[in-house]
Every structure is written in C-alpha cells, then in structure tokens.
Design a protein that fits this description.
The protein is α+β, with helices and mostly antiparallel strands. The chain has a single domain (7-97), classed as Trna Endonuclease, Chain: A, domain 1 (3-Layer(aba) Sandwich), CATH 3.40.1350. 24% of the residues lie in helices and 34% in strands. It contains 2 helices and 7 strands, in the order H-E-E-E-E-E-H-E-E. The protein has helices at 7-24, 76-81, and strands at residues 28-31, 41-44, 50-57, 59-61, 64-69, 84-89, 94-97. It has a 5-stranded mixed sheet with strand order 1-2-3-6-7, covered by helices on one side. It has a two-stranded antiparallel ribbon with strand order 4-5.
C-alpha cells in the first residue's frame, strides 16, 4: 500500500477491508454514507447486538517509516456513543479492536 499517498484514500482502503473482515466475523455491516461524523460504520452481530465503529488506518511516523502508529483516542462524542476504534494496519492488512480505558 506504499503507492497510495493520499491519506483519505488510505482511510477508504482500511474501511473496505474492515467491512469484509466484519462480514467474515459474522456481522451485518452498514456504512456511513457521508464522509464525516463520529461513526464510520455500524455492525450488528447474530444476537442483534450493535457496535458503532470508527476505523483508524495506521500511518508511519515521518521520522521513522518502519514504525506504524494510529490514533487510539476517541472524541468526547465517540465516548458518549460508545464508539469502538477498529485499527487497520495497511502493511499487514490486520484489523483489531482497540481496548479502551475509561
């Protein structure tokens, strides 16, 4: 994914991976139709439980291109809505939910 320079395109790529990954985990997925807001998608599991998700794509730190990092901090609005951060590593294409500390 090193050839994708535009950060918004990298974010789009991560969101598409997140949708298919969540499908593989057994979720129904509904994406935000806009490009802003505290939630990228809503996932519903087989029991009917709903998860609000914000996908964060890891980027490289400008001083060390080998270290990937991403923002794990939720906004006040995301905390109020109990939005879960789903981290996407573009190098390995791995996705994982971030454990939030309240």
């Amino acid at each position: 994914m090193k050839h994708i320079k535009d950060l918004s395109r990298k974010g789009d790529f991560g969101e598409y991976y997140a949708v298919t990954w969540l499908w593989d985990q057994g979720y129904e997925v509904f994406q935000n139709s806009g490009c802003s807001g505290p939630v990228d998608m809503i996932a519903i599991d087989k029991k009917g439980d709903t998860i609000f998700i914000d996908v964060k794509t890891a980027t490289t730190h400008s001083q060390n291109s080998n270290n990937l990092y991403n923002t794990k901090v939720r906004t006040k609005k995301q905390i109020k809505l109990n939005v879960q951060i789903l981290s996407f590593n573009p190098e390995t294409r791995e996705l994982k939910f971030i454990k939030h500390v309240k």
